[in-house]
Amino acid sequence: MKPKNYLGLTSIDSLKLSFNIDEVDIIDSKLLDHKITQVVNTITGEIEQEKPIQLNSIKHQYEEYQIHFAINKLFGEERVVVLINSKLLESDYMNGVSMKNIEIVYNRLMEANIFHISFYDFLSKGMVSDIDIKKDVEFSSTEEFDKMTKVLDNSTIAQRRKDKGSNRFAEKENKGIEWNSRTKSSHAHPFLKIYHKGIESKHSKNYEFFNRYLELDSINNVVRVEATIKNFSTQGAKYGFVDNSLQSLLNKSSIELNEIIDHSVLSNLERRIKDAKPKTLKEYSPTDMILFQSLSLHIQNHHSIDQVISYLIKPLESVAKSRMKKKLLAIYESEIKGEIAEIKSRNISGFFNSIGWK
Fold first, then answer.
1. Pairwise pLDDT comparison (53 vs 298), residue with the higher score
2. In the chain, what is the greatest distance between 2 CA atoms, to the nearest angstrom?
């Protein structure tokens, strides 16, 4: 099993990359095609309707995924556009796109033989927009994940507009929460999504890709946090970008990219109220300490408290049995039950810390 070096690191999941059409060599002429269907009046010969069926675009099929190439008007000029996705990294998908692996992305794009540009110009002349940034963390319990998203939902900053605020989803095959609209993301109302990547990998439309390139069991407990820079011209400068070249984006460290996630979290959630510090274990007599240790051992082995107490008091007579049951219940209620709740609380609290909710 591969080491999970990607956990806790922020990288790029996807982006739109474009080049001035004069800066690239078009290899596949179909990218230049502009095809339409026509409805023609057979009596008069008049064209009554035209409908485009291919507007300067190609979807290239790789093994279990597609990459979209197109020619669009962007930045006031005709540009070749590529929708880059970390799927191009294939077995290294979970690492996300970074300066360390961008040459792999470049080589796979060039292998498609749609267009050609040098690697140097790919980095320096490629202009980025619609950037999705991701961070993966582990969260062991699906049940606690649902509780965690409910806490986040209840802690969302109130919004007046219907297209702002949170949208929680807790279906069996799709779990998570998102804020605002990806297509309308702004610095003031940034898009943010937190979802269970382990569940998605097994049940989404991308299952065949995940099954082919990843060890699915290794991401069972992975939760992904995503933030978006939609409009680079208005958001980029606020996040400290000098320009919108691919090289400038890739020069950002994981820590700098994580600041975008932190901003998105704090822009959508009320200030966090942290739990009070739990109490410490009381002083017990040697006998009570043995009872405490016995209860703890059985419960850690996944026995219910009722099963444990029944087992421990079974040899006793009725009066002693009643007294011992009360004592065992008191120890459980005051120490062990609280400790179990505390561990669950620490798990959720640790996750909140990892996504930057303060």
1. 298
2. 106
Q: Regarding beta strands 57-61 and 66-74, do their DSSP bridges make them parallel or antiparallel, or are they unpaired?
A: antiparallel
For 74, which DSSP code? Answer: E
- Check residue 30 and give its pLDDT: 86
Count of Cβ atoms closer than 10 Å to residue 10 Cβ? 24
The model's pLDDT over 6-38, given as tens digits with 9 standing for 90+, comes to 999 999 999 999 999 999 999 998 888 654 444
- Rounded to whole angstroms, the Cα distance separating 175 from 145 reads 8
SS3 310: helix
pLDDT band (50, 70, 90) for residue 256: very high
Contact 211, 219 (CB under 8 A): no
**Gap between the Cα atoms of 224 and 30, Å rounded:** 37
Burial of 34 (0-12, 13-18, 19+ CB in 10 A): exposed
Q: What is the DSSP string of 128-153?
A: EEEEEEEEEEE---HHHHHHHHHHHH
Give the ranges where the chain is alpha helix by DSSP (H).
102-111, 119-125, 142-154, 197-203, 207-213, 232-235, 246-250, 254-268, 286-300, 305-313, 318-331, 337-354
32: which residues sit within 8 A by CB, 6+ positions away? 26, 56, 71
